[in-house]
Amino acid sequence: MLTSQRKQLLLKILDEEGQIVARTLSESLGLSEDTIRRDLRELAKEGLLRRVHGGALPASPAQANFAVRTTISTDAKPAIARAAAALIEPGQVVFIDGGTTAVQLARALPRELRATVVTHSPSIAVELVEHPNVEVIMIGGRLFKHSIVACGAQALEAIGQIRTDVFFMGVCSLDPEAGITTGDYDEACVKRAISAAARSTVVLASPEKLGTAAPFAIAPLATINRIVVSAQTDEALLAPYRAMGIAVTLG
Asked: For residue 73, what pLDDT is reported?
């Protein structure tokens, strides 16, 4: 089998099964595990998949730029946002992450809600201007344009001074084995710091992010309390999270 044919076959298997386990696949195809791993490395360099220990996962489409991401899961994201908004209690101090699903969450907040929202996203702050009873605290720093959020030392210092009730985390990728990952190292550090300073962390996971992986780890799944996903999500995808004791809210 030619190299190009092997790669096309690997991508087809990844699309159909959602993951590749190098050892298992080498046995079923009668190819050496080294050959499979080499092909996976080359495909990862092309951005066609994401290498993980023992195999590969689909590359997350959430690594596209902000404008492109607004066109993905346009029905699921508002539904996820409404379900997440219902989790906020009056008087709470909540941190809302940046990203397209988080913007939908800000839009879904009831106009009469009394709460404090901390955010490092200008997009979130602007959405809350017309909420008269929501106090908005902005975190500043270097603007990371991919997600339109503040990053860097200044942001981390400010985040460390605030204890929130809930952190609504936007993610690039979520997988039971790879954990919570994103495409930028600094953004991963900031998300990790926000989560550490929150009493609970809720992950907003639109369908294209499940079962995918990105280069930089944010935190182990054990550190999150809940995920909010589309009501149309296959239960088989959710079962591993439930087994870990993570609450699942359907939107």
From this structure: 54
